[in-house]
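Here is an idea for our session: we take a single protein and study its fold together. Once you have written the record down, we can walk along the chain together.
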Amino acid sequence: MSNLPKNIVIGTAGHIDHGKTTLVRALTGIDTDRLPEEKRRGITIDLGFASFEMKAPDSSPLRISFVDVPGHSLFVRNMLAGAGCVPAILLVVAANEGIMPQTVEHLAICELLGISRGMTVITKADSVNAAQLLEVTHSIETFLQATFLRKDHSPLLPVSATTGEGLEAVRTEILKLGSSTHLQNSDGLLRMPLDRSFVMKGFGTVVTGTLMSGRIHIGQTLRLEPSWHTVRVRGLQTHGQAQQSAQSGSRVAANLSGVDAAQVYRGQTLVSPQALSAVDVIDVEVRLLPDSPALKHRTTVHFHAFTSETMARVSLYGYEAAQPGTVRLMRIQLSEPIVLVPGDRFVLLQPSPVGTIGGGCVLDAHPETRQRKAATAAWLEQLRTSSSEQQIVLRVGRRTTVGINLDTLSAETGLTVDAVRSCVSPALQHGALLSVAGDLLLSCEGFVTAAEAIMASLRARHPMKSSELRSQVALGPEVFEFVLNALVLEQQVRLSDEMVSIPDTGCEPSNAETDRLIAVAKAYREAGLAAPLVMELARKLNLQEAEMRRLVTVLLRDRTIVRMGDDNLFIHSEVLGQLCAKIMQLRGSQMDVAGFKQLTGLSRKYAIPLLEYLDRQRITRNQGDRRLVL
């Protein structure tokens, strides 16, 4: 494993003409200014890309990719497209000018995007004398004091790309940064925001981007969002080398079939089919910069996330204007859909004059648009301070009595189904969530609400056909059956054929009959799963067959015991409940009759009726000679 290549993408940041492109060229040998206008004007206009490899401390290859961004204020949108996908930055400050306006704005953007790693280089060190260099170094240290660039006390490195002075120290610091910073996300669904597309002769459409999460491989079928084109990966390159696959954190060039280059543009995202889709309404947390103007309700702004940008309208929770330097909950309506998931960072710009006003984090990419704003705001407040496991519980909980399946929850969170399943496991064990049928999840509160609705309808009129009752309480079939069966096991309701009723408690049996009922129920409970046949128990308790049958009927009516397929075999409901709980712990596994017999210690005489009961309760599913535990 130690020889697998490690990847890091580093974005440049800094004021125009402070030497970002020249420094990257000195480190990699690649000129990232590729446009004729960039050559003519001598400034970076669009994103540039370069890379080289180093040896990590464990001797494994370390792939360094640079995304070089323009420093001019007119091209801040292009800078945002480059900074949106990087985990670390290289802040460049020229020794002859020091801190300048775009130095300040670029660093603010990086902090709004949640970038927490980086290094600072003082370029053009040969253009000033020693005293001037010391003075500018001190001013830069002061400026960076409260930022992430000084949290690890990383050095400020003077360098001259012209003379080569300091380049080796910069490479050493890049090696440290690259060894400790990675953008690898094995829990996230595949996402690759595109920053460039072009036609390569003999190959066709080629796109480039940073693979934010997941893994991509040749032959894979993907979808372009938001255009919904289905494409196939014909070829892959990382660092100019052909690859069979690429892991998250890599700069990737992908040769695609199924789409023309003219249909591909910066801001689209490659995703797995039926996994993620672009959204146009999101609930977010926004921090406004201290020098920004107040942000009013229903204001129009520029919204930037990853390589995407679009106009957006802001709706404030609370309506009163958001003041500079404050943090607020907002709903944002995007003019163009973008692939976003909870945790994604973004930046807001005011349209005119163009300038950064703030940024934040996506809390919910699939908000309940018909829910009252006060309830949504309270839910978001809980969400923003909760752990990842608690957030999953909150997402299931807001579905009340409808529930949500794992695939939908995966798309809503951006996590793989396996990662979601891992997150919900503790909640299932603690009872905060319930597994209803297959992959459908229901919250404990949703279960209680559904149970109360069923009981309320039955109190108003019973008995009632189960189909009529389900229609009246407006529950989905899986949730209705799950809750109804639970109420039956708890003996709160009685189910006889298709009729559902509340047990009649108005007529109390005599003391003698009560004693006989208790004795029969106790015998079934103590017998466990290997319950005796009716006549065997009658002889044991010295009861006539007719009397025994009558007592069994009473216990069956009250759901104290449960029939196992014929009129002679019954098992106590508590024992069945314990068996169900035991089997449900094996969720996702398979077993045959022999395995079930070994697990329970039963003979085939008892095992087969019990397995059929578990099938009816949707705890297991019969798949030929094996059962799948749901």
User: Anything to note?
Assistant: The mean pLDDT is 87. The two ends are 35 Å apart (CA to CA). Residues 279-364 form a domain with the Elongation Factor Tu (Ef-tu); domain 3 fold (CATH 2.40.30.10).
